[in-house]
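Q: I'm building a small set of examples for a reading group on sequence design. Run inverse folding on the following structure and report the sequence directly after it, with nothing in between.
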């Protein structure tokens, strides 16, 4: 099985300065004499702290207030009913024998844009399934 290294850093004056220089040195040492590939690109913008605060502190909390159920129950429901259909093609992992393994939905890997769409769809789902109205992010104070 091939392991890939993902290393973030910044480019200054035409040089890549890794956040963890030791990790880069060790990666090069471990590949000494072996064919390797270096991929270079922008770091994708992941979900934001304000999005997470809104998701857990407003969206999930409104559903909990309405029902008294556990917050994790709503989170799991949203993952299965909203995220799985939204990201179905991304949830499959290719195996060496050509078959596919279905992965578990998670918000951890969502981009900023995907998390925005996910939250919007969760709000719609909460209203359609349970008639829970969740205020827009612009109408709440998150501290």
């Amino acid at each position: 099985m091939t392991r890939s290294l993902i290393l973030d850093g910044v480019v200054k004056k035409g040089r890549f300065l890794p956040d963890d220089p030791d990790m880069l040195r060790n990666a090069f040492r471990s590949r000494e004499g072996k064919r390797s590939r270096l991929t270079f690109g922008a770091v994708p913008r992941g979900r934001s702290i304000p999005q997470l605060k809104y998701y857990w502190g407003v969206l999930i909390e409104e559903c909990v207030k309405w029902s008294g159920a556990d917050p994790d129950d709503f989170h799991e429901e949203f993952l299965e009913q909203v995220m799985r259909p939204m990201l179905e093609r991304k949830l499959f992992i290719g195996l060496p024998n050509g078959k596919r393994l279905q992965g578990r939905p998670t918000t951890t890997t969502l981009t900023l844009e995907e998390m925005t769409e996910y939250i919007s769809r969760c709000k719609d789902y909460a209203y359609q399934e349970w008639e829970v109205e969740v205020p827009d992010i612009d109408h709440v104070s998150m501290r």
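The chain has a mean pLDDT of 86.
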